[in-house]
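okkk here we go again. third time trying to get the zinc ion bound version out, last two times i messed up the smiles copy paste (missing a bracket lol). double checked this time i swear
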Amino acid sequence: MPKINADRLLADLRHLRSIGAVDNGVVRPAFSEEDMEARRWLKAQYEAAGLEATIDGVGNVLGRSPNAGTALLIGSHSDTQPTGGWLDGALGVVYGLEVTRALREDPETRHLAVDAVSLQDEESRFFGCMGSRSLCGFFTPEMEADAQDKDGVLLSDALRDAGLRDAPRIQLDRERYLGFLEAHIEQGPHLEEDGLGIGVVTSIVGLGGLRLKFDGQQNHAGTTMMAIRKDASAALYALANAINEEFPKVAGERSVWTMGRAVIEPGAASIVPGYAELDLQYRDKSTEVLDAFEATVSRLIDEINARGGAKITSEPARVRVAPAHMDEGFRRHLAVAAQKNTGEMWTEMPSGAFHDAGVISEFMPCAMLFIPSIGGISHDFAEDSHDDDIALGCQVLADAAASILGE
Ligand SMILES: [Zn+2]
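finally!!
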């Protein structure tokens, strides 16, 4: 079986960290100079590992194995949040590189075909998971047309500045691949809390969101009697409170919901608010639970509207992201590899965060592996994992890749 080289793996991860390093973190958003430098460095590493490497027209770096036979694709994303951690997607990218090297160094697995990939803009500077969408043929001209970042930079200008405007875009050949494996830090506390080394992901949670609008009557806060008010904020508080009381009754074990944005107009202490908005977002691994959350909100709106006062309406705040189920067969291989390398110190678990595998699973079978995040912290300069856990995760991935391809 292949044996990964932990020193080489860690040295490469640390080199990647140095590109865009700030304090203990990394600033390497998609198409920044640092991001493109990291991609050129990765391309060179893929070539040194014997892969045929290309940076495509949206910035994906794909290293293709020259070996014959059906291939596995392994990787993640090397772009970061505006102030990101050093491991986030980088871990899975360097795992892909190291797995191809380890397989090539083992006479028993030398003939197996593994392609390595670093996907572009998973972190949504212009369009979340742009790279994986593009590889699967899901990145439409409409999505691209007015894509811009939060500072108003157009995607088309960013592509030009990165020197990618004329580079061909790669679309994956479905016939070539058995599927895609992505490793990632957990970005949550569960593995560390339970003292486990590996999480085999069962599904990636879906999410939905509603924009709730409250139409009232703006008026004087001193002279308008309570009984006749149409107070937009009172309706907002009532609905928000009811959501927090009613959602637990239909929630799954790891459901989460957030009301992260509220607007009250005109926003003055002496004025009964005439208008308000509240954004609600909810996530769960089950479509039924997401449906139940939406049904609950519409029942609560009807109940509060029936009392008079401000009128509440709701509209989708975003396109629903369906939960993505990881491939059963791949999961079995990952479980066997985890068992072999950790004994009982692994578990199956859903992913609460979204990942490229959530996009690619609509194109071909996918599976994911997690390693523990220290303190459960991610998307922050403090993000970190233990070296031993980093090495262990890569060995599990290499063993699983060999057994999937050897089957
Ligand atoms: Zn990530």
